[in-house]
Design a protein that fits this description.
- The protein has five helices and twelve strands.
- It has 214 residues and is α/β, with parallel strands linked by helices.
- It has a single domain, classed as Collagenase (Catalytic Domain) (3-Layer(aba) Sandwich).
- A hairpin with a 2-residue loop joins strand 1 and strand 2.
- The termini are far apart.
- The structure holds zinc ion (2 copies).
- One zinc ion binds next to helix 5.
Length: 214
Amino acid sequence: MKDRSLVRHIVIHQRIFDMWKYLLLLLLFGCNEKKANIPTVKETTIVLLPYEGFDTSLIPFIQRQIDSFYHCKVICLTSAQLPSFAYYKPRNRYKADSLLKFENRFLKDNEIIVGLTGKDISTKKDSIGDWGILGYGACPGSVCIVSTYRLLSSPALFKERFIKIILHEIGHNFGLPHCSNNVACLMNDAEGSINTVDKEKKWLCDKCRKQISL
Ligand SMILES: [Zn+2]
Ligand SMILES: [Zn+2]
């Protein structure tokens, strides 16, 4: 196992399945750099998976935003209970990598599953065994998880921040690494600060767009 810190991000090289040898994760987002099995934007259906307790009134907004950004078909599953094996009782939160394993059970061909939860989620960061995060996803891969828990303190900015994190995680699923071309590019490394997210626009720079043929 090899860990690589990218300020607000953490790269955790971790065996999950044979097809996933590495996961990169950060305070907000996750990705790695393996090139195989990359979902293609044109052929992918984005599947929303709201976990129990998630505010489902947000679903139409999320669907519209993903559709207008990636031009993918977006569907929504019925709510699922958070799996008990992902629960980390000492901090009353859920392990993001365990949630990704759970989401793989629902996965069909040409789909990306976006888990949505109001509960706190976490992962390992450097020497910190349990670090709270906003989102986590495979890069590339077909599953990610995004949490509203750390965003709810700013109602005015909540929806814009939340959708940026969702679009960023899906970008990782499509194989986009972090980007430093332009502070407005959605694939910036947030580097531990929500301010970085606020500088981003719902926009990908030319390099990122080309990479995923968007
Ligand atoms: Zn990221
Ligand atoms: Zn970019």
